[in-house]
Amino acid sequence: MRLRLFQAAGMVEAMALVRAELGPDAVILDSRRVRGGVEVTAALDQPAAAVPLPHGPLPGPTSPLARHNLPAGLAVRLGAGPLDAELSAALRFAPLPDGRARPLLLAGPPGAGKTLSCAKLATRAVLAGARPLVASTDGVRAGATEQLGAFARVLGLPLAVTPEPDMLRHALSHRQPGQPVLIDSAGCDPFDPVQAAWLRSLALASGADLLLVLPAGLDPAEAAETAAAFGALGARYLLPTRLDAVRRLGGVLAAASLGLALTEAGTGTGVADGLTPIDPAWLAQRLTAPFRLESAA
């Protein structure tokens, strides 16, 4: 899905821009008056382009990568040399933004672990001597605000409940210079135009970096399509969760191969130590670790 924001002096001019760039099948998601004219958000659903398979043998059944169900092209590329070097060349890795330079907005599908990840990041900030501004925009899921509020109370932090963009903008106006800002959002289906427009409006209102929180263990094709859709909404960073509970990482790598930078991984439920930085060496070790079939019981 292509999502674009257009500004023009009037609606007629804005619609002409939409049609010229996205074509007659574009869908108008939102329009509003702004200083100097109007602002229109439009989207165009596009079928995913077929990815040609590179020449070369796929990793064989004895390869430690075979069990991860990687996309074929990525599997060939990663099998071409030392795994950590090939991971570094094929994927992006970046430090997780701390919310100081720009607010950090955690987004993702329902149940991905956004609220717990937000609590982990808030705990990290407090332990480092900061008092982050923590906000929840989740007015959808029952108990979501209470869950994050409980973590915030333990940390001695207030929680700003801001289910609307204007409320979020107002809460951020009280931010102190250099204060980290962490924003937890409701689960979003990025293929739903209304939900996609809502998430985009929150990102625009806050000026935030968008962090995609995505559970490991997804079907690789599903993970890649989801990452592409959130990428179209502005996501540039990826935090995979549940790496303490899954053994196949094809979905994580498929999502990262769409250009999102791998940052850290959710590797436990503890709020003080449940995130692990991802770098090529660590990821290579996880991909090639012995595959244990027996139960821990």
TrEMBL record:
It is a peripheral membrane protein. InterPro entries: AAA+_ATPase, P-loop_NTPase, SRP54_GTPase_dom. Residues 101-289 form the SRP54-type proteins GTP-binding domain. Its main location: membrane. It is found in: Cell inner membrane. Residues 100-218 form the AAA+ ATPase domain. It holds the Pfam family SRP54. One of its GO terms (molecular function) is GTPase activity. It comes from the Bacteria. Belongs to the GTP-binding SRP family. This is Flagellar biosynthesis protein FlhF.
